[in-house]
Amino acid sequence: MKKIPLSILDLAVVKQGGTAQTALQETVRFAQYAESLGFERFWMAEHHNMEHIASAATSVLIGHVAEKTKTIRVGSGGIMLPNHSPLVVAEQFGTLETLYPNRIDLGLGRAPGTDQVTAMALRRNAKDVSMSFPSDVKQLQAYFSAENSNAAVRAFPAEGLDVPLWILGSSTDSAYLAAQLGLPYAFAAHFAPAQFRPAIAIYRNNFKPSKQLQKPYVLACVNVVAAKTNDEAQYNATSLVRMFTGIITNSRVPLQPPGSLPDIYNIPEVRATVENMLACTFIGDKETLGKNLSGFIKDTNIDELMVTSYFYDEAAKHQSLAILKEALA
């Protein structure tokens, strides 16, 4: 079986009975545990105006997690560039790289990670700002470049630092840009699996080598729920199914403990939509995961696997990570 790096995506989700503070504390412990198992990187995602997600100030949280860990790479999955000026992002991640050398990743997304009203509140000239995503990425590259030293506007302490840029995607749009710029491509198959295979094909077929990357590099993010038995894994996965059902039906609540699914899940249209979103979700014991994930890795020829883990019980969440590591050993 092809051995590839394993990584984590975390959103600091607030659980029923918990708070933003307890969610952030759990995120730190999860990163520390992932580091102890030898995971490659720990990314956090930027979302706004979402009551039960505590990772909105993503760069601040990255610094906190990096301070509480020692070796694992820490980064963004991603920073939603339409919400920020490239100069501010360069300054923030230049500072992070200065504080934690050779450990910071900068994943970039073209969506706002929120609704349009909130996007306008984040960046008041946000109308159609996603159209400037390619030029904003190039501006970021310029700010990090040592060749920017003669420019009128310079980013300190970012200038001359090697902070790897990644392009994130949940459709085929960003695949072309990642290929054109010769950057690694991370796809959100954990919630948008439908266009995963077309997108990575576009990326690989159009890739142009760059200073950062000589050949295509594909990271796929998927959901993983592992346990000692298949039945236990399926039971724990009900928290994930309940969360996605809430997203689809616009009835968001804190992450729920595992249990029976809500009645609304049994509406055929709702159930079909949830199942489509969870097409790249892997649930089971070590043997089941080993078989299914190794098949997925071989079939898609990805270079790195990133996983999200939505568990109500923290000990079960850590156990899942250990079982995943063993399954792909």
Considering the chains and any ligands shown, give keywords for the structure.
alpha/beta; 42% helix; 15% strand
Topology, please?
Layout: E1 6-10, H1 20-37, E2 41-44, H2 58-68, E3 73-80, H3 86-99, E4 104-109, H4 116-122, H5 133-144, E5 165-169, H6 173-181, E6 185-187, H7 196-206, E7 218-226, H8 230-236, H9 238-248, H10 268-277, E8 281-284, H11 286-300, E9 304-308, H12 314-327
Parallel strand pairs: 1-2, 1-9, 2-3, 3-4, 4-5, 5-6, 6-7, 7-8, 7-9
Helix pairs in contact: 1-2, 1-12, 3-5, 6-7, 9-10, 11-12
Describe the structure.
With 329 residues, the protein is α/β, with parallel strands linked by helices. The chain is 42% helix and 15% strand. It has 12 helices and 9 strands. The chain has helices spanning 20-37, 58-68, 86-99, 116-122, 133-144, 173-181, 196-206, 230-236, 238-248, 268-277, 286-300, 314-327, and strands at 6-10, 41-44, 73-80, 104-109, 165-169, 185-187, 218-226, 281-284, 304-308. The chain has an 8-stranded parallel β-barrel with strand order 1-2-3-4-5-6-7-9, surrounded by 9 helices. Helix 11 packs across helix 12 (314-327). The mean pLDDT is 95.
Q: Which percent bin holds the helix content? A: 40-55%
Q: End-to-end distance, in Å?
A: 9 Å
Q: Which secondary-structure class do the elements indicate?
A: alpha/beta
* Low-confidence region ranges: none
Please state the CA-atom Rg, rounded to the nearest Å. Answer: 19 Å
* SSE series: EHEHEHEHHEHEHEHHHEHEH
Count of runs of 4 or more consecutive helical residues: 12
Instruction: Estimate what percentage of residues fall within beta strands.
Output: 5-15%
Characterize the overall form: globular
Please outline the major beta sheet.
Answer: 8 strands, parallel, barrel
Provide the residue-averaged pLDDT.
95
Number of separate strands = 9
Biggest sheet, spatial arrangement of strands: 1-2-3-4-5-6-7-9
